[in-house]
Amino acid sequence: MQQILVIAPSWVGDAVMAEPLYRRLAERHPGVAIDLFAPAWTLPLAARMASVRQGVVNPFGHGALRLAERWRLGRQLAAQGYDQAVVLPNSLKSALLPWFAGIPLRTGFVGEWRRGVLNNARALDKTALPTMVERFCALAEAPGVLPAKPIAHPQLQVAADSRTQALAQVGLDAARPVLALCPGAEYGAAKRWPTAHFARLAQDFLARGWQVWVFGSAKDQAMGQEIAQLAGQPTGLVNLCGRTGLDQAIDLMSLAQLAVCNDSGLMHIAAALNVPLVALYGSSSPGFTPPLTNRAEIVSLKLDCSPCFKRECPLGHTHCLTQLAPERVWSAAQRLLPDMLP
């Protein structure tokens, strides 16, 4: 049996967008076993990807070289007998582990002095491969061959018993329609729609009999609480920020009838779950990492100063998001769900 080790991305959104690569590898190599070397916090994604056998914990933090530890782990992985490694991050340190493990075929894009450790190094043609998912999928093909288009959208699979268990763990039910709000964005404040706007939108949905679940990590807990306070602490609004792991968040998100998200990892999760999605863009652009689904409305003011791709607004006002009124998001939601939101 052929075995492939993928050095997977650390960002949740990028990790989701890599899923079509795994399906393409499985198509090209029937019966292949695909393992992901990935940070522990992204492994719930791997567990919900049909083409992935298992996740292997990447213990190295962002920017940490820890050369001796990488060598020791590489020698341990050598016993697995992998036939190929596909390296998705562009750093040199990401390519070292497959080299230390003695994996015969090591595939990835040229970058950061990696030619010596990648023996199947590819030159990246950014014009031919304008999006991240295209670049990932190109690494499944033979050198010089572009991935066939259209590329399949990422898919996450959630079992019914996982949904039931997640609901029980947080004390919720899905008897009424669910609006999922995702106010966080790990990259920075310039990608976050104001909490007051999320609160106003929540009130509109609550008034129509929906329940509202606010998703995020522990870092987003204060934002979730602020949304609840600005909305008037309604009983139908539940702040889940910091109350779930990524596994529970995925399972609960799959129950939503609609998600409203900043450009974030949770946005890509909602897309991969095929949940109708309103994606909010301010300082970033959907050109490179759009929500990969046929059920999304992208809302952006497209101001002259955006996209700036900055973590904080360089002009100090973040008009690209503060001036994005809740009414525009409501209209986008109506286009997605005309029968539920007349």
Brief descriptors of the model:
single chain, Rossmann fold, six-stranded parallel beta sheet
What can you see in these coordinates?
The structure is a single chain. With 342 residues, this protein is an alpha/beta fold. It has helices spanning 12-17, 19-28, 43-46, 67-78, 92-100, 132-138, 160-170, 195-206, 221-230, 246-253, 265-272, 319-322, 326-336; strands at residues 3-7, 33-38, 54-57, 84-87, 105-109, 120-122, 178-182, 211-214, 237-239, 258-262, 277-280, 296-299. It folds into two domains: 3-138, 3-Layer(aba) Sandwich (Rossmann fold); 160-336, 3-Layer(aba) Sandwich (Rossmann fold), CATH 3.40.50. Helix content is 33%, strand content 15%. The protein is globular. The chain starts with a strand and ends in a 6-residue tail after the last helix.
Shape: globular
Largest sheet: 6 strands, parallel
Described by its quaternary structure, the protein is single chain
Q: How many distinct helices? A: 13
CATH hierarchy, class of the largest domain = Alpha Beta
Structural class: alpha/beta
In round numbers, the mean pLDDT is 95
| CATH superfamily heading of the largest domain | Glycogen Phosphorylase B
User: What is the straight-line distance between the termini?
Assistant: 54 Å
**Total tally of structural domains:** 2
Q: What topology, given as strand order, has the largest sheet?
A: 3-2-1-4-5-6
User: Any idea what the CATH architecture of the largest domain is?
Assistant: 3-Layer(aba) Sandwich
Number of strands: 12
What is the beta-strand fraction? 15-25%
By CATH, the topology of the largest domain is: Rossmann fold
Helix content: 25-40%
